[in-house]
Write a structure and sequence with these properties.
InterPro entries: NADH_Ub_cplx-1_asu_su-2, Ribosomal_mL43/mS25/NADH_DH, Thioredoxin-like_sf. It is found in: Mitochondrion inner membrane. Keywords: Electron transport, Membrane, Mitochondrion, Mitochondrion inner membrane, Respiratory chain, Transport. By secondary structure, this protein is α+β, with helices and mostly antiparallel strands. The chain is 32% helix and 26% strand. It has a four-stranded mixed beta sheet, covered by helices on one side. The radius of gyration is 12 Å and the shape is globular.
Length: 91
Amino acid sequence: MSKFVIPTALKELRFHLSQTGEASVPLRNFLTTNYATIKKGSPSLPVLIREAYGVPPSVTARFEKGREVKSNLEGLDGKAIESSLISLLKN
């Protein structure tokens, strides 16, 4: 069983990060390690990675009926990012 349980109500998962910013390094490392696991849990789920200069790292989950929940990942390490994503998916 995957450590990321993807609810059926989840329609899209968006990660925002800076291409060069130090604050985004933990998120880049997290995505490098866990992207395949997330996609394996729900292959048809759009997992978008948006890179832009100077953007603070965050994740946004879009659920049914357009409801979006955003979590700021700035200052978090890999384990804390994982915990934040798991709690976001339980929303």
